[in-house]
Amino acid sequence: MSIRKSWAALCLLGSLLLPSTASAQFNWPYKITGGKAVTEVPARPAGQESALNLSAPKMKVVRVAFVGLGMRGPSAVERWMHIPGIQVMALCDHERGRAEKCQDILRKASMPAADIYSGEDGYKELCRRKDIDLVYIAPDWKHHFLVAREAMTHGKHVAIEVPAAMNLSEIWQLIDLSEKTRLHCMMLENCCYDFFELNSLNMAQKGVFGEVLYVQGAYRHDLTPFWDAYWKKDAQDRLGWRLDYNRKFRGDIYATHGLGPVAQVLDIHRGDRMKTLVAMDTKSVNGKMHVEQMTGEKCDGFRNGDQTTTLISTENGKVIEIHHNVMTPQPYNRMYQLTGTRGFANKYPAEGYALSAGELKKSGVTPSADDLSGHFYLSKADAQALVRKYESPLVAKYEKEAKEVGGHGGMDFIMDSRLVYCLQNGLPLDIDVYDLAEWCCLAELGTISMDNGNIPVEVPDFTRGEWNRVKGFHHAYASPADEAQAAADAMAFTARLKEKGKKYWEKADRSSGKK
């Protein structure tokens, strides 16, 4: 009740900036001064504190609710069945049948059934419950913010699928919510947990590449086979939410897969910050074509270019290059490239590392030959030796189980496991609300750049002056003793819960006449 009262003003602001139905807008105030666009940065309200290194009290059990059980939600529920110390309290989707179907996942894992919520406002009723710690949000993009705002207003931590916020209005509201309520607001950026990215991050942090000066990331994924699979709200909706969003909005509206992992390498808001961006796009050709094919009508306007490129400079003189292209035929490519003063890492299309023999020796790895040059990728044997030397602790801990459980090859499971680990041990999360802001802001800021002749746009300091207070990005860990205790508590709880779940389903079968 106290949270609701303290947030009445913020919720009123939200209702003014964003309607209760899903309809994101790019309308944040900005001015152009000296050829550069500068957006308005709201002052931090009195009594509100930074969410940097935010932690919450330890949770022996993470009581979770899932909202959005269409494309990504069910696989998330299934992954969580492999994480000790959790209980699924509620399942919610606009279509009730989708939520009910996920009960089969709980049944298979001998977990008790969860309560079901559905309809346009089902998530609101769910968020008013007092026995939920975390809301895992995976509906269409336009509902990400609406569900997160409702959940945090009612005292729940949130983990939001990508992109977590679609415009600067949503971004600033989530920042204020997290700072005021002291609740975690994490974006579920799974690409930060892929094996190559984790190992390369560890190498970069250990100085293997020298000073990393230039990084690249992307989401280049031809979605032609998938456009018709996205949820449609009714018979009149012939495009589905994702193609319709691309039709209405310009800019890199899906930057997070490419930007997230490289931003961690550069310690963004942990010693460096994104300072200025410039965005450019091509005209829409295939986007218009898809609309015309799916509607049978001429498409006179399609805002999102078939290819969007954003260049970002940082306070410390680094450069970030990010691409977005979901329209043209090409192999899947997140780019992920690190260019350092002493070495190089690249994931797509050819995965490998480039270091001279001398630099490899300095890194503690004996090269297979003395004439190795940074002009060429390391041999398979040398690269494997480098990875063994600098394997990420997260890869070492989770890789085997992650590959068995799955989720984009295992990275989804590592992401979910880390989230639960940090909550159970009372630690700061790997991805905070400022990461969310920085990785989502390219959409509206890029649009401002392109709509004004590709002018530079100042990237807001979402930390409001505290970007250099934390020195370096790192994954938080509990002490060995605390970690062991939390793990033991989690295992014991799950064992008891499974016994309860087994009896629940046996009783349900008897009641229904099943044997």
UniProtKB/TrEMBL annotation:
GO terms for molecular function: hydrolase activity, acting on glycosyl bonds; nucleotide binding. Residues 1-24 form the signal peptide. The keyword Hydrolase applies. The lineage of its organism: Bacteria, Pseudomonadati, Bacteroidota, Bacteroidia, Bacteroidales. This is Oxidoreductase, NAD-binding domain protein. Keywords: Glycosidase, Hydrolase, NAD, Signal. It comes from Prevotella multiformis DSM 16608. Residues 62-186 form the Gfo/Idh/MocA-like oxidoreductase N-terminal domain. Belongs to the Gfo/Idh/MocA family. Glycosyl hydrolase 109 subfamily. It comes from the Bacteria. Its cofactor is NAD(+). Residues 199-350 form the Glycosyl hydrolase 109 C-terminal domain.
